[in-house]
Amino acid sequence: MRIAVSGTHGIGKTTLAEALCARLPGHVMVDEPYYLLEDQGYEFGFPPSSEDYRAMLACSVRSLRSPSTPRAVFDRTPLDYLAYLAAHGADPSEQADASTVRLAFATLDLLIIAVITPESERVLPAAELPGLRSRVNDALLELVYDDPLDAWKDTPVLELSGPLDDRLATALDVLES
Predict the structure, then answer these.
(1) Helix axes 50-65, 98-105, angle to 10 degrees
(2) How far apart are CA 40 and CA 35, in angstroms?
(3) What torsion, rounded to 10 degrees, do the Cα atoms 11, 12, 13, 15 define?
(4) For the segment 100-154, what is each residue's pLDDT rounded down to a tens digit?
């Protein structure tokens, strides 16, 4: 299976991805594009610029389309970077080739969306750039359900808006059904 976890920064995506890998035999975690690009020498601004988000978007598409990881849990998807670009005022439908993004999402068996909840705000450590975090969360939710690129409509989506302690069990239940 190929699973991806999307969401704004500081929402527990990496923790969930690691937990899924620990419970799904043979699955490996694919780092988020920020770290993949950083390992290749890419230098990001702080906060990242629109150009930085476009680079991460392209890297995310390449990662999803790579056939070398048939059992993988991806930490972030192109949807994340489209949401960051939207939060910076860009039109997501103008940021990527729809057919390329569609092919990337077609490789997934499940897209998990981790969202901000009152509990996550109370329990998780305070994230950097809270205004951006909130705007990205809202943009991501709008994008995932509106799908302006017509790119992930055939990918099953699980929105995790319940208790943080239930996220792993909820995802595993969906995967087992």
Answers:
(1) 50
(2) 9
(3) 170
(4) 999 999 999 999 999 999 999 999 999 999 999 999 999 999 999 999 999 999 9
Report whether 160 contacts 113 (CB < 8 A): yes
Distance CA 32, CA 74 (A): 7
Q: What is the pTM of this model?
A: 0.96
The contacts of residue 130 (CB under 8 Å, 6+ apart) are: none
Peptide bond into 78 cis (omega under 30): no
Q: Is residue 111 a contact partner of residue 4, using CB atoms and an 8 Å limit?
A: yes
Q: How far apart are CA 136 and CA 156, in angstroms?
A: 21
Provide the terminal-to-terminal Cα distance of the chain, rounded to the nearest Å.
Answer: 13
Cα distance between residue 91 and residue 177, in whole Å: 36
Phi and psi torsions of 173, nearest 5°: -60, -45
Structure tokens at 13: 């995506």
